[in-house]
Amino acid sequence: MGYTLNQRAKNFRSMLARKANFKVMIKAENQMINIVVRAILIEDGKLVVVKWDEPRNDPPGKIGILVGGRVEYGEELSEALIREVKEETGVDVQIEKLVYTYQQIYVSRRSGMEVHELAWFFLVSPVNPGDEACPNDSIVPNPDHETIFNSRIPITHKELSFIYPLFLRDHLPKDVEDGFMQTPKTIYKNLRDGREVEWPKAWHKSIEA
Model pTM? Predict the structure, then answer.
């Protein structure tokens, strides 16, 4: 309706320019975007984590992450998380609640690449009550690599000081104690300048409304 061919062509060129700028903005030769999901799996009051030896730490020692991994193309977040937990622990889980969404920008020590990571942390529970990733506090080999294993740790600031991302040590113990009443939370961390910002729960409510 009164929309000329020249106007359409102009808008089309503008759209292509925006897309080109968007690609440059989010991904350059030495940059990558990493999308991951993580499980907050609690057994007998302890957190199930994946650990390995990291000689580059000072002092060297075991560090870890939560069970989970990358989202594959076309997967929903919930599908990816359920798949990853099954692959790493053998346990079928169901998602109880979104607890944290987390963004961090950092430079990989291994590859030197600048990484923008987006992560979703969900509270999960076994589909079949009694199924456990680490029965009786056992240390279980993780199928991802022979040097990696699954274990349980107390949910304390001290124990979580070796679990990445490090925001967990400052938030998870209190959130567990409160029954996750103050979640979900969104946290942004830029390791290049040390900034960390927590967006309040009210922000989530406004998005969901």
Answer: 0.77
pLDDT (tens digit, 9 = 90+) per residue, 60-105?
557 899 999 999 999 999 999 999 999 999 999 999 999 999 988 8
Task: State the total domains in the chain.
Answer: 1
Between the alpha carbon of residue 191 and those of residues 33, 114, 126, 196, the distances in Å are 15, 10, 34, 8
Q: How confident is the model at residue 168 (pLDDT cuts 50, 70, 90)?
A: very high
* Length in residues, the chain: 209
Contacts of 47 (CB under 8 A, 6+ apart): 40, 41, 66, 152, 153, 154, 155, 160, 163, 172
DSSP state of 126: E
Amino acid making up residue 152: R
Residue 11 domain-assigned? Answer: no
In a domain, 71, yes or no: yes
Mean pLDDT of 35-42: 96
Structural domain of residue 52, as residue ranges?
32-208
Using DSSP's 3-state secondary structure scheme, residue 5 falls into: helix
How is residue 126 written in tokens?
């076994």
